[in-house]
Design a protein that fits this description.
Order of helices and strands: HEHEEHEHHEEEH
Helix content: 25-40%
Oligomer: single chain
CATH topology: Archaeosine Trna-guanine Transglycosylase, Chain: A, domain 4
Radius of gyration: 16 Å
CATH architecture: Roll
Number of domains: 1
Largest sheet: 7 strands, mixed
CATH class: Mainly Beta
Structural class: alpha+beta
Distance between the termini: 23 Å
Shape: globular
Number of strands: 7
Number of helices: 6
CATH superfamily: Hypothetical protein
Length: 206
């Protein structure tokens, strides 16, 4: 699904759409420390090497709304900036057979970055170290990286769901055993604070 913001009015409607009725079953896997940064409003940026682009039609996001699925797989303290490492060390995990779901996200903008210089201009808007992004940018035959600007939302109370074997593996998107309700989730940032971060994101990539 390609996300296109048609006008400021369209964006304003998205930012005001604080009530959802349709349940969502798809989740997006990301380091737990990054999920925490998104969930506290520290960043709105998600960078991903693969699992987001589709075909020759350009960058597309598979889902417009999704749950944030925190992972320990491939999560390394040395992969994030110094000030974010406390979140890595202090993250409280439930038992291994349970998956904590607390946050969801809505994609506002999505792009493919073909120049590493573009990714460098996002410094300060996320917690990844530059070396990690550069390593991913150059990895494989498809040189480049994908970026999403998302608006994170929080459940009134976290839920823990059974961790299934089907959720494993190096993939970005997973289908949960049961859909969870978006209804009642609240944005972690006010509309004004989010628009400020979104403007910084766009200006960095202009």
């Amino acid at each position: 699904m390609k996300i296109v913001i048609k006008s400021k009015l369209h964006l304003a409607r998205l930012l005001r759409a604080d009530k959802y009725t349709a349940p969502v079953q798809i989740a997006f896997k990301e380091w737990a420390v990054v999920v925490e940064a998104l969930g506290r409003g520290g960043q709105i940026v998600i960078l991903r090497k693969g699992g987001i682009a589709e075909g020759q039609g350009g960058f597309r996001v598979e889902q417009e709304r999704f749950w944030l699925f925190p992972t320990r797989f491939h999560q390394q303290a040395e992969g994030v900036v110094e000030e974010a490492r406390a979140g890595f060390e202090n993250y409280k995990w439930p038992p291994n057979d349970l998956l904590p779901i607390e946050f969801c996200a809505e994609v506002i903008e999505a792009r493919r970055l073909d120049s590493f210089a573009q990714a460098q201009r996002l410094a300060g808007q996320h917690i990844w170290r530059e070396e990690i992004i550069e390593e991913r940018f150059d990895w494989g035959r498809d040189v480049g990286i994908y970026v999403m600007a998302v608006r994170a939302r929080r459940l009134a109370a976290p839920v823990e769901i059974p961790m299934l074997e089907s959720y494993g593996g190096c993939k970005s998107w997973v289908e949960l055993e049961a859909a969870l309700e978006f209804a009642g989730t609240e944005p972690v940032l006010t509309a004004a604070d989010f628009e400020l971060k979104l403007r910084e994101f766009r200006e960095a990539l202009a």
